Amino acid sequence: MADLAAALRPHVDAGEIPGLVALVARGDDVRLEVLGTQGTSGRPMARNSIVRAASITKPLTAALTMMLVEDGRLTLDGPVGELLPELAAPRVLRTPGSGLDDTVPSDRPITTRHLLTSTAGHGFATFDSVVVPLLMEQLGQASMEVGTVPAPDEWMRRLAGIPLMHQPGEGWTYNASYDVLGVLLARAAGASFADLMAERLLEPLGMVDTNFHVPADRIDRFTTLCGHDDQGDLEVSDEPEGQFATAPAFASGAGGLVTTADDWLAFGRMLLAGGGGLLTRESVELMMTDHTTAQQREMAGFFLDGQGWGFGGGVDTAVLNPWNVVGRYGWVGGTGTAAYVDPVHGVVTVLLTQVELGGPDSAGVLESFWAAAAS
């Protein structure tokens, strides 16, 4: 492995990001690099600094779903309408480009598998759709303003009024399915999604700093979130005492967790161990297997470039870059996070920064990390 500091320090020194934690674990050999500051507090970044996980939350939601499948509380191919009556009879846009008044009935029920594979019909896409603005405005999709998202029952009521972008199982659309999964799991278990996540997954794995908010006694370890202004310069999006300082009304299974590098490492090691007693090996294999068709990958566009989609994360299907390994599983979060498990070489890689992706050269630090970890 190349020198992580040499690969990553230029991104911090250039002011692209305030700080980072980078971790590469091969068995018990853990290589770590901590650089820069947590943000406006000026505190140095630390190994246990807490960041907004964003979409590297999704693999945890998928794992929790498979636990309830193994319990018999859910079935992969059973309709979700009994627990989610709001989605029992959805309307579907007649074509992807149709208007809101041009819909047809769903020709099949939405299943748990559809939600896990992001083929249920709600989400972001690489094509224009009248649905996406509704998801953003009414449901808080792609927003870090977690305190403004309505509670689950109201959230589902609003979702029920938004048509699917494609028939269940036919297309691939990103993100919203994992928020629906959070509601489904809570109703199946008769507990809040946050409590269920803590009891079944976070506590058994010792993920002590992973939660849907940051308690007051840990705020000093929480990072400032930054975005980019119109000129591409960094600007503060959220302070440590901001959106994540209190428990949200809606715990997002798509991207609502905060975490640390060692916490996500514990989760990755569980996957490499074939479930580690929490999941069966068969469930882990389902999570880390590509379930998409060629047509769905084409529909996904840049979301799945060189990857398919398993349950909760991408699965490398082609070696487009030196860091790709066919079968590598994981994902990237919009707050500048990335976490992958390579079952071929037994490696877990975690990079945590605090800058939203989407600005000029914002993915450069991710690529520098992956290249150094793979070399």
Structure, described:
Helix 1 runs antiparallel to helix 11 and helix 2 packs parallel to helix 6. The protein has two domains: 245 residues, Beta-lactamase, CATH 3.40.710.10; 114 residues, Methane Monooxygenase Hydroxylase, Chain G, domain 1 (Up-down Bundle). The strands form four sheets. It has a seven-stranded antiparallel β-sheet, sandwiched between helices. The chain has a two-stranded antiparallel ribbon with strand order 3-8. A two-stranded antiparallel sheet has the order 4-5. The radius of gyration is 20 Å and the shape is globular. The chain is α+β, with helices and mostly antiparallel strands. The model has no long low-confidence stretch (mean pLDDT 95). Helix content is 30%, strand content 15%. It contains eleven helices and 13 strands. A hairpin with a 2-residue loop joins strand 1 and strand 2.
